[in-house]
């Protein structure tokens, strides 16, 4: 083979190699804003859960088991304790009538202790009040309130609000002492929307006449499900003979059965979840409200509310970061010679004295 032919072959190979290396950059440079938006489909960057048991006393054991079971499921699917507000009576595990102290079970077989070793209750006992619940939602807590008791959501947060207890037409009782009305709840969600405290919100309630609790909602981006229609009771599932009380409600039982089959990367949708517990299982009629929600529930992943996402938002503009100069007592240009100071040592701040 002659030298010119070898030269031509080498040149051709170099051109092909350059095209191959530059192709990704050519594609990236032609990426439109719409394509970037397609990458960031869900529109939210973080997940929160507010889980509330509004009742107390031993005969309401099942309500504590309800909320702790949902708590266990959302933690398993990825929502950390730092993003969960748990409000529960917390008087079942240590109740003198409990034959197995420090445990709460949601099944007569007692396979899973939903109280566990890592339950972080934010509001317990008499802290579970209508005032505290509304203040948590709206962010109007006193300055002295610990950070762990705050719902630190923003306009990119998807929030799951789960409530269980005893209710009636248009109200839900708290601790048999007070009640929150559907109007108060609707206004609290509207305050959240006005203050940009959520992107989308899923409201889930398991109580008698539960449908009445979301009938007054008027804020956008809210999807809601209730365990019973107005005029219907929401029933318990089964009794644990060792405890002598019902251990879980029917709707929550079948909802958990669905959630237990999901994994953090699950493709199950909210549309599928809204169909759990048909009337032959629940006896009551499950009610759903979707008119305020902007997306098709069949296209919304279950993990958009019950899991946790860490989406990265792509920006088209360049962010200018200020230069940060670190001071050091150990080195300077004069003491280190003429070489440019590339790294400087940092000093720890004074600490409290620690015992040896």
Automatic annotation (TrEMBL):
<dbReference type="GO" id="GO:0006508">
    <property type="term" value="P:proteolysis"/>
</dbReference>
<comment type="similarity">
    <text>Belongs to the peptidase C13 family.</text>
</comment>
<dbReference type="InterPro" id="IPR001096">
    <property type="entry name" value="Peptidase_C13"/>
</dbReference>
<dbReference type="InterPro" id="IPR028361">
    <property type="entry name" value="GPI_transamidase"/>
</dbReference>
<keyword id="KW-0732">Signal</keyword>
<keyword id="KW-0337">GPI-anchor biosynthesis</keyword>
<comment type="pathway">
    <text>Glycolipid biosynthesis; glycosylphosphatidylinositol-anchor biosynthesis.</text>
</comment>
<dbReference type="GO" id="GO:0006506">
    <property type="term" value="P:GPI anchor biosynthetic process"/>
</dbReference>
<dbReference type="GO" id="GO:0003923">
    <property type="term" value="F:GPI-anchor transamidase activity"/>
</dbReference>
<feature type="active site" description="Nucleophile">
    <location>
        <position position="208"/>
    </location>
</feature>
<dbReference type="GO" id="GO:0016255">
    <property type="term" value="P:attachment of GPI anchor to protein"/>
</dbReference>
<feature type="active site">
    <location>
        <position position="166"/>
    </location>
</feature>
<dbReference type="GO" id="GO:0042765">
    <property type="term" value="C:GPI-anchor transamidase complex"/>
</dbReference>
<feature type="signal peptide">
    <location>
        <begin position="1"/>
        <end position="29"/>
    </location>
</feature>
<protein>
    <recommendedName>
        <fullName>GPI-anchor transamidase</fullName>
    </recommendedName>
</protein>
<dbReference type="Pfam" id="PF01650">
    <property type="entry name" value="Peptidase_C13"/>
</dbReference>
């Amino acid at each position: 083979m002659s030298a010119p032919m070898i030269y031509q072959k080498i040149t051709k190979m170099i051109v092909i190699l350059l095209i191959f290396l530059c192709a990704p950059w050519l594609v990236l440079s032609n990426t439109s804003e719409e394509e970037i938006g397609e990458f960031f489909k869900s529109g939210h960057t973080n997940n929160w859960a507010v889980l509330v048991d509004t009742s107390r006393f031993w005969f309401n054991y099942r309500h504590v088991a309800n909320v702790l079971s949902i708590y266990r499921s959302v933690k398993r699917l990825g929502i950390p304790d730092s993003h969960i507000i748990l409000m529960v009576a917390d008087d079942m595990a240590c109740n003198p009538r409990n034959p197995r102290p420090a445990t709460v079970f949601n099944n007569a077989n007692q396979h899973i202790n939903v109280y566990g070793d890592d339950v972080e209750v934010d509001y317990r006992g008499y802290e579970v009040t209508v005032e505290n619940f509304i203040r948590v939602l709206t962010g109007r807590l006193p300055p002295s309130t610990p950070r762990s008791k705050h719902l630190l959501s923003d306009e990119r947060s998807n929030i799951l609000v789960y409530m269980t207890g005893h209710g009636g037409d248009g109200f839900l009782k708290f601790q048999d002492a007070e009640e929150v009305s559907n109007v108060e709840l609707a206004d609290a969600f509207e305050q959240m929307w006005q203050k940009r405290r959520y992107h989308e919100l899923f409201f889930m309630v398991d109580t008698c006449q539960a449908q009445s609790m979301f009938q007054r909602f008027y804020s956008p981006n809210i999807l809601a499900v209730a365990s019973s229609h107005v005029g219907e009771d929401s029933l318990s599932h089964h009794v644990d003979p060792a405890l002598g009380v019902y251990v879980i409600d029917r709707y929550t039982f079948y909802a958990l059965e669905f959630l237990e089959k999901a994994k953090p990367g699950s493709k199950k949708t909210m549309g599928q979840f809204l169909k759990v517990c048909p009337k032959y299982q629940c006896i009551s009629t499950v009610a759903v409200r979707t008119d305020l929600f902007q997306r098709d529930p069949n296209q919304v992943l279950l993990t958009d509310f019950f899991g946790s996402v860490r989406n990265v938002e792509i920006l088209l503009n360049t962010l200018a970061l200020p230069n940060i100069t670190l001071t050091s007592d150990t080195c300077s240009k004069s003491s280190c010679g003429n070489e440019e100071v590339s790294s400087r040592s940092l000093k720890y701040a004074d600490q409290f004295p620690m015992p040896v």
